[in-house]
Structure formats: structure tokens, C-alpha cells
Amino acid sequence: MASDITMSDRLDSMLPTVAEYYEGKNVFITGGTGFIGKVLIEKLLRSCPKINKVFLLVRPKRSQDVEQRIEELADCPIFEKVKKEHGSIRDKFVAINGDMMQPDLGITKSDREMLEREIHIVFHSAATIRFDEPLRYAVEMNLLGVRKMVQLCKGFKNLEVFVHVSTAYANCDRPYIEEVVYPTPVEPQKLIDALEWMDDDMVEAITGQLIGNKPNTYTFTKQLAEDLLIKEGASLPLAIVRPSIVGAAWKEPVPGWIDNYNGPSGLYIAVGKGLLRSMKCDFNGVADIIPVDIPVNMLVTVAWYTAVTKPNKVLIYHSTTGSVNPFTWGEMEDVVINFWKKVPLDACFRRPKIVLTNSGFLHEFYTMVSHLVPAYLADFGYCMIGKKPRMVKIYNKLHRSMSCLYYFTVQSWEWTYNNLDMLVSQMSPEDRKTFYFDPRSLHWPTYMENYCLGTKKYLLNEDLSGVPAARAHLRKLRNMRYIFNTLMVVVIWRTLIARSQIARNLWFFIMGLVMRFVKFFRITSTIRK
Fold first, then answer.
1. Contacts of 83 (CB under 8 A, 6+ apart)
2. What DSSP element (H or E) covers 342?
3. What phi and psi values does residue 55 have, to the nearest 5 degrees?
4. What is the mean pLDDT of residues 215-228?
5. What pLDDT is recorded for position 3?
6. What pLDDT is attached to residue 49?
7. What is the gyration radius of the CA atoms in the chain, in angstroms?
8. I want to staple 450 with a disulfide (CB 3.0 to 4.6 A). Which of 51, 78, 255, 351 is the partner?
């Protein structure tokens, strides 16, 4: 590895600790109201308490102005631990009224001048993460947003580091991904120029051809954004962090904390509710989920390392689990189903059960039998009792979400971790504990149980006191299933078996064996008593 990113021993006397580095620093964060952004802010305030100010790019939303949104952010339960340890946090926040979609980010001249004077560290995490986003919007948000940030940061007089949050799937058309920025299939500027004169219908018509082997506009634009960042931000102190599928917290702020339905969170709820019964995926494929606190700790540490060592090239860091601590979809299914049976969700539609298959034909069959038929029957029942039908609509939405994930559930990737290992080696033992980001010690079954519990507590707001009632509801669903199966046996008997003497003899023979089997175990249990 290049000499600028390796050292035989960590020089403690030369490198400040992470918390020492952040003392008195001003940080500018985009995407601060998002999932990763909230956890990043919480970590900075709790583990680097002497940080000066956190400047947040926030746009007005619905009936709230930026100050109201900042107040809402400060009141978020995620900051309870910080407040207990360090008191009020509101005075640490500085709201910057802006929008990634606006020219010059929509930032006023006075705010821009303030940022140019004050900011030392920039974390750019704002992006659209919808896989099915129209190409024009994805380019505007994920690609042009990076250009606007680069142009803004070039005016920062005290900038020490710019950390860009990318994705491990920016190069998902490659099975083996290294810590480099790969050549793009389309020159970013040429795409930007083309979109200026194309109408929406034309853009939609050629989107598939433009993204090529990429599965969606998200991964496509994130790769282009890396290329643009490296070229246009060459004069800036840059670093790139690539997380995989970001999931609930592993340890901090609390195990299982989650605030959105993105990624696997919605899947776990759909399975727990008995809605999702079939999923197209590779049973032995790696589910590359990364707990949110791991990439957040990496972001904080990458900024520290880049600022204090000033490497002479842009370093890229992978925050994934697939190559160092793999966990398959099959293993996940086992843990999730068993957990939902022990701690069920309230008002389940059916008992938790799912079939994982890589066969398109079997998946379509299971989808028809286990999803659509029950959905139409349920909606018919709702109509009969005067309620609005809803199950078909729910399943259509679920199927659209699942179709966006197929690409990532039927194949696996490998990543390199040279820079991760290097970064760990440069940290003090105390910082390694405080800012952990190596996923090798993650115990998957425990994490997955906390993840499912987190969706129940933080997304669905279900109290654990309702678990006994939820279990009783599952038993009721089980009994209904038994009754249904019995009725089906009777129907089959009346229509098929009762008309054939051979079939009747075979039926009586089988039932005789069953009765003998039951009688044997009754006698055995009586003797034991």
C-alpha cells in the first residue's frame, strides 16, 4: 500500500485523539434530518462534547420553517442520552435555510459568508435513496448536489476535510469492488447537458439504456457523483465512505434504534405481520446489512484521520459486512421468523412464515397463492362488512418495493477493506472502543433480534405489554388455519376419495395408522406419569 496511508506503528504523540481533534470545531452536515444524519449528530455531540457548532442544511417542509424543523430534531428521542450526559443540545445547532435542488443550494449570501468563515468539517450525506427515482430527479439530487457542495466548499477558508457518503453499490455491476473510483459508463457532464434539452418522456424512454448494467438510477447516479467529486473537488481534502444496506443500530444510541422503513426494516415488519410469505432471493446469498452506528463511527473517524494526516490522495472506505462477517438471507430468515413467534407484532394478518426461493416461477406461484388470493378474499370480506378494501393495495405496494430489491437479494459481492484496517491501526485503544466501525465482532442473531424489536418499538410504537395478547392472536390464527385445512380435507374427501373404493381403503389404512400412533403415545405418556 502507498506510504501515505500506512505506518508501522501509530504515533500517539503526533496524532490527537478523535475527541481532541473535534474540540472547538464547526461541522456542516447535509442530510442531518435523515437516518444516518441523526445518528451522526448524536455521536458527535455525545462522544465529542467539546465540538463547537453543528451547522445543518435544512429546507422548509410542509407547514414547518427551518427553525421549527431544528426544534423538532432537537426533541427527537435519539438525543435523550446526550441530554442526560451533557445537558441541552439546542444551542449547538445552527440552521442554514437551503435546498439541494435549488441553485447554489438556495443558501442566502449572508449564510454563505458565515459558512465560509466558520466551517472546518463537512459531511455530505444528503441524497435521494429511492431506487425507482426518475433519472432527472436522481441526477439533480445525487449528482448536481455534489457539484453544488464542491462549489460551496471551495470558498471555505478553514476547511480541513470534506467527507462524502456514497454507497457500496455504486459499482454493483462488479462482483469484486476495490477502494477506488472506477471509470463511469457515461461522462457526468455529458449526461447533465443531455438532460437539459430532453423532455421527461424522452428521459424515461432512454433511462434503461443509459444506466446499462446498473439496476436503478440510485446506484447509477452515486457512481457518477464519485467521479464528479474526484475531478471537480481535486483541490479539496476529500474522503469517501461507502456503506452497504444501512440498518438499525447495533449498540448506539440504543440497540435496535430505527426511524424509517427503508431497506430491510419494512421487510421485517411485513414478515412479522404475516403479509410477506414469499421472497425472491438466494437462500445462501449474503445479506449485506450494516448497522447504522458502524458507518457513522467511520465517518467521524475518517474526517479525523483525513484532517490530521492529510493523505496525498482521496481514500475510499468500505463499510460492509459481506467479506468479513457474512450473514446469509437463509440465516436471517430463521432468526427473524423465530423472533416474531416469540415476540409477535400486534394484529397480525397471518402467522409469520416465508419461503425464500431463487426460482422466478416458484416465486410467482407463491405470490399468487399466498399473497394475491388471500388479499382479494380479505378485501371481499371487508366489503361484505361495509369496510373499505385495503389488502390488494397493500400487496401491490409491497410487490413494488420487493421488485426494487430483487437485484440485491439474488447475488452477493466482495469488497476490499485495506483502508478500514489501516484506519483502525492508527487509532488509540480508547478511540477504537468509542468509535468502533469494524463489523467483525458483530453477533448477527442478537443484532437481528434487536433489529426486529426496534421496528416494533420505534416504527410501529407497539408496547411490549401487548405481547401476551399478540401471542393469543397468533394462536387464534393457528386454530383458524387448522379449521380451514380440515374443511379442505373434507371437501377433497367428498369430491374425490369418497367416489373410489381403492382411495377409501387407502384412506382408512392411513387413518388407522394415525390412530395407532396417537394411542401409542397416549399409553406411553400415561406410564411415565
1. 89
2. helix 329-342
3. -90, 130
4. 95
5. 39
6. 93
7. 27
8. 255
Distance (Å, whole) CA 269 – CA 336:
10
In terms of Cα–Cα distance, which of 241, 388, 376 is closest to 318?
241
- Which residues lie closer than 8 Å to 50 by C-beta, 6 or more apart? 19, 22, 23, 24
Q: For residue 339, how many other CB atoms are within 10 A of its CB?
A: 22
Report the distance separating Cα 254 and Cα 300, nearest Å: 18
Rounded CA separation 152/115 (Å):
9
Identify the pLDDT of residue 319. Answer: 96
| Residue of 245, 268, 423 lying closest to 337 (CA atoms) | 268
| pLDDT for position 46 | 95
Q: Which secondary structure element, helix H or strand E, spans residue 516, and what is its range?
A: helix 501-528
For 363, list phi and psi in degrees, rounded to 5: -65, -45
Helix axes 444-454, 329-342, angle to 10 degrees: 50
Residue 77 preceded by cis peptide, ω within 30: no
What are the residues facing 164 on neighbouring strands?
A: 124, 240
Q: Which triple of cell numbers denotes residue 134?
A: 426518475
Q: Smallest Cα–Cα separation from 26: which of 89, 104, 93, 96?
A: 93
CB 26 within 8 A of CB 443: no
Q: Confirm if 203 and 135 have CB atoms less than 8 A apart.
A: yes
Name the percent of the chain in helix, strand, coil, to the closest 5.
Answer: 55, 10, 35
77: burial class by Cβ within 10 Å (0-12, 13-18, 19+)?
exposed
What is the C-alpha separation between 288 and 462, in angstroms, rounded?
A: 27
Taking alpha carbons only, the member of 254, 300, 320, 314 closest to residue 436 is 300
**Predicted TM-score of the model (pTM):** 0.88
Q: Are the CB atoms for 363 and 280 separated by under 8 Å?
A: yes
Nearest residue to 256 via CA among 73, 449, 36 = 449
Residue 395, Cβ neighbours under 10 Å: how many? 21
H or E element, residue 109: helix 109-118
Q: Which amino acid is at 390?
A: R
Strands (E), 46-196: 53-58, 93-97, 121-124, 161-165, 176-177
**Averaged pLDDT, 310-331:** 94
Residue with grid cell 428521459, as numbered in its chain = 203
How far, in Å, CA of 35 to CA of 307, rounded?
25
Q: What is the Cα–Cα distance from 403 to 407, expressed in whole angstroms?
A: 8
Contacts of 91 (CB under 8 A, 6+ apart): none
* pLDDT tens for each residue of 80-95: 999 988 888 889 999 9
The letter for the amino acid at 328 is: T
Query: DSSP state, 67?
Result: H
Nearest to 127 by CA among 262, 305, 290: 262
